[in-house]
Design goal:
The protein is an alpha+beta fold. The chain has 3 domains: 33-315, DD-peptidase/beta-lactamase superfamily (Beta-lactamase, 3-Layer(aba) Sandwich); 331-464, STAS domain (Transcription Regulator spoIIAA, 2-Layer Sandwich); 474-615, Jelly Rolls (Sandwich).
């Protein structure tokens, strides 16, 4: 798992943070660096010169983001990791029918260099063993030998995103010691599976195995397969999409030689290994994995590579038979508080502050199944958007499921944001059972509206330099703005002032609207019942200085929602009939009230329009 140590290690500024995934890869490298099992492939003399301590790990996502640790940039020859990609070329050049007529797709159960064929068809068992790979190389077309060589190098260059060269020393070593492969090649020609000059094909095969790559290169190649054949870094197509499933299917069943069955069971990722110590894994639609470490086990697979891939699959829940949504669906809309606010009705001064500073509150709507790959995409977007934010709200209302790897990334996200002075806030966390596992650092709220209100309160308190809920007498009420002292005194003389206990229903839905209320202290909220099961929605919150029930000034209709005190509140109540009597004695009083009310309604309408624009994306 992404541990607490990783969370603590990541507590630094957003500008310099390497990220919890890099921390995790570094942890894996440190854990397995001292694993000294296996031996280097010294039957090829040049490969025998490798340092057994070389060890690199790299992940490349399907949208082109790279995470690497250790010797991820150290060059080595690609060897058998080349086989799936040459198969892809053969499929493009010759078509599926011709390739399958010459190469099977069944696991052999034998070592990669076994001299065996399917006795019924004389075909090599699959293109991941040497016999099938040599036949696949023989299917590569070209006008002449140099053209075929150039086409192979160009194809690999598209996968990795830059030019690729051959390690001449390794090529010569392969060629000189390649008698077993020669025997396989001539056997394939004898069975009619290989056409043309056998030595030319073997020369090309040795060359493709001697291409010089890095761990990052082969991770990018794996990510290209994960991205339907398009290099996610350069955007260039490397393999026709229709043949990607062919390549991945054979990798799944045959890519790890006679360890393939146990690999699928334990790791569950389409993979391919090479005797120079490279292993790649492909998560379709998600990412490519690569590990480089030269010491090999008895099957010819990198010892550290196998162990690291097992851990990554387990820790990040990457087994391909786990059903996941498409990457990128983890993050829905993103908006800021200056465009879409809470339902708390604010004073003019507070609204001015939020208009100017509300962008410091950013909301991210998460959705669908959150697992490693989808949460990794969300993690990057959230951190990027937090560069100019103070509060980050994560809305889990549309999240269906969240696995342990995604939870670990959330924990790391909390560390990254907190360390840089940001505050992480959760809304609707109970929808995916996050509240039970939530860190004490996380603020959790029942819905986004409450989360936004809390963030706004913190922001307003900081900017205004005072407590928000100070008592405000009648002459400081928003609706009574611009009234004369005499007019306010007249209203005060007619008003009834009461202190109301928390949880009291002041106005009830269905009652006649015959009075206007001013909040002098405390908080009240407007709530709308949603059914007979007690569910309700908060429509608005009013604090000191705000009025409710003001629509009674326009008509004597029926109340359409309840108004309930959220805490002990002091309220001034004045009957509409009394206001109208006062209006007869003070002609400007009602005109001013209506003007103030109109300004409030216009401001609310403008805010509602802005909110619709912000949310309707």
């Amino acid at each position: 798992m992404l541990t607490q140590d990783l969370k603590n290690a990541s507590r630094q500024s957003l500008a310099t943070i390497p990220g919890p995934i890099v921390d995790y890869l570094e942890q894996l490298r440190a854990e397995y660096q001292h694993l000294d099992e296996g031996r280097i492939a010294d039957y090829i003399p040049e490969l025998g010169k490798a340092d057994p301590g070389w060890f690199g790990i790299c992940l490349v996502t399907a949208d082109g983001h790279v995470y690497e640790a250790g010797d991820a940039s150290h060059p080595f020859t690609i060897q058998s990791v080349s086989k799936p990609f040459v198969l892809g070329m053969a499929l493009e050049d010759r078509g599926r029918e011709e390739v399958l007529a010459r190469i099977g797709v069944e696991p052999s159960g034998n070592p990669f260099n076994a001299i065996v064929v399917d006795e019924a068809s004389n075909r090599p068992f699959n293109p991941m063993v040497n016999s099938g790979a040599i036949v696949a190389t023989g299917l590569i077309t070209g006008v002449d030998v140099p053209n075929r060589r150039a086409r192979v190098q160009d194809a690999f260059a598209r996968y990795i995103g830059h030019d690729i060269v051959i390690d001449d020393a390794v090529f010569e070593s392969e060629r000189v010691t390649g008698d077993r492969n020669r025997a396989i090649g001539y056997l394939m020609r004898g069975f009619g599976m290989l056409e043309g000059d056998c030595e030319e094909t073997l020369d090309l095969y040795f060359r493709q195995c001697s291409l010089l790559v890095t761990c990052r290169d082969i991770a990018t190649m794996a990510a290209t397969l994960a991205n339907r054949g398009v290099n996610p870094v350069t955007g260039e197509r490397a393999l026709a999409e229709e043949f990607v499933p062919d390549v991945l299917s054979v990798m799944s069943s045959c890519g790890m030689y006679d360890y393939s069955g146990e690999w699928v069971y334990r790791v569950g990722i389409p993979a391919k290994s090479g005797v120079s110590g490279g292993i790649i894994g492909v998560l379709p639609g998600q990412l490519g994995i690569a590990v480089f470490s030269p010491p090999l086990d008895a099957q010819g697979n990198s010892v550290r590579g196998v162990r690291v891939c097992e851990r990554i699959s387990e820790d990040l829940a990457l087994h391909v038979l786990r059903v996941h949504a498409t990457v990128g669906t983890g993050l829905g809309r993103t908006y800021r508080d200056d465009a879409a606010r809470s339902n708390s009705v604010r004073s003019a001064a507070a609204q001015t502050v939020l208009n100017e500073h509300g962008g410091a509150i950013v909301v991210h709507e998460l959705q669908g199944d959150l697992y490693f790959a989808s949460m990794e995409v969300a993690f990057r977007s959230i951190v990027d958007d937090a560069s100019d934010a103070e509060f980050v709200v994560l809305d889990f209302r549309r999240v269906v499921k969240i696995d342990r790897a995604a939870r670990s990334l959330l924990d790391s996200l909390d560390g990254v944001l907190t360390a840089s002075g940001r505050t992480l806030v959760f809304a609707h966390a109970d929808s995916c059972d996050l509240d039970a596992a939530a860190s004490s650092d996380w603020g959790t709220f029942a819905d986004v509206d409450l989360a936004l209100e809390w963030c706004e309160d913190q922001l307003l308190t900081r900017v205004l330099g005072t407590e928000l809920l100070v008592d405000l007498p009648l002459h400081e009420q928003e609706l009574l703005r611009d009234l004369s002292d005499d007019e306010v005194g007249a209203i005060s003389a007619r008003a009834t002032i009461d202190t109301v206990a928390s949880g009291t229903t002041v106005v009830r839905e269905g009652e006649r609207a015959d009075a206007l209320y001013f909040v002098l202290s405390g908080v009240v909220s407007v709530r709308l019942g949603l059914g007979t099961d007690g569910r309700e929605r908060r429509l608005a919150t009013f604090g000191p200085g705000m009025a409710f029930g003001e629509m009674a000034l326009i008509d004597d209709g029926i109340r359409t929602a309840d108004v309930v005190t959220d805490e002990v509140a002091t309220l001034a109540r004045i009957a509409v009939a009394d206001l109208r009597e006062l209006g007869a004695a003070h002609p400007e009083l009602m005109a001013t009230l209506y003007r103030n009310l109109s300004c409030q309604l216009a401001a609310w309408l403008q805010r509602a329009n802005a909110q619709v624009r912000a949310l309707d994306r």
